[in-house]
UniProtKB/TrEMBL annotation:
Pfam families assigned to the protein according to its UniProt record, in alphabetical order: F420_oxidored
Keywords: Oxidoreductase
Protein name: Pyrroline-5-carboxylate reductase catalytic N-terminal domain-containing protein
Alphabetized PANTHER family for the sequence: DUDULIN-RELATED, REDUCTASE
MF-aspect GO terms: oxidoreductase activity
Domain of life: Bacteria
Signal sequence bounds: none
Domain Pyrroline-5-carboxylate reductase catalytic N-terminal: 2-90
Length: 207
């Protein structure tokens, strides 16, 4: 796939490295172009001067930016027609809660830019596990949610290529649960002094 990653922080760089290793063509853009250049050089991808430039011709565009700026970025790329992955988590400034109530950040993004092919995914995976998608020989779960079935299939294929077990959580309304699931994992690691390596896997019969 041609994958554009907007953001050069821990999540953006981790996802860029994993995607390149899986054989995808990766372009990175960031608020500060020098950061995008650095990450692209490190992982073997290419960099772009802006989110709009990175998303041109992309199959998938991943928003790996702070939740507070995601709507602005989405506005820049809304005309590309690519599948857009919201990998953000709407944490407050003290990381003690989410900024949303009764909805999800993904739903808010979809309302800002109607018609976007938006899928919530990768937000439940720590950056440290993006290139290490298995535990004890079993793949970690890659949960995703959205209202566009074709877009979700593209994201499922991307998750699979990176070594995750893709699990369709349902429509975009279920992004609320995925954002809370991510918040739970973050809180557990922060409270207990864990090493930020934990991941989710649903066990038991699923067929």
């Amino acid at each position: 796939m041609r994958v554009a990653i907007i953001g050069a922080g821990n999540v953006g760089s981790g996802l860029a490295g994993a995607a390149v290793a899986a054989g995808h063509q990766v372009t990175v853009a960031a608020a500060h172009e020098e950061n995008a250049v650095k990450v692209a050089e490190q992982v073997g991808g290419t960099s772009a001067a802006s989110a709009a430039d990175a998303s041109q011709g992309a199959d998938v565009v991943v928003l790996a930016v702070p939740a507070g700026v995601a709507a602005d970025v989405l506005g820049e790329i809304k005309g590309t027609g690519a599948v857009v992955v919201d990998a953000t988590n709407p944490l407050n400034e003290t990381y003690s809660d989410l900024t949303t109530s009764g909805t999800s950040h993904a739903e808010q993004l979809a309302a800002v830019v109607p018609g976007v092919r938006l899928v919530k995914a990768f937000n439940t995976v720590f950056a440290s596990r993006l290139g290490d998608a298995s535990e004890a020989g079993q793949p970690l779960d890659g949960y995703y949610a959205g209202d566009d079935d074709a877009a979700k299939q593209v994201v499922a294929e991307l998750l699979t290529s990176l070594g995750f077990r893709p699990i369709d959580a349902g429509g975009l309304r279920m992004a609320r649960s995925l954002e809370e699931l991510a918040f739970l994992n973050i809180s557990l690691n922060a409270r207990n002094g864990w090493t930020w390596q934990s991941g989710w896997r649903l066990t038991g019969p699923t067929v």
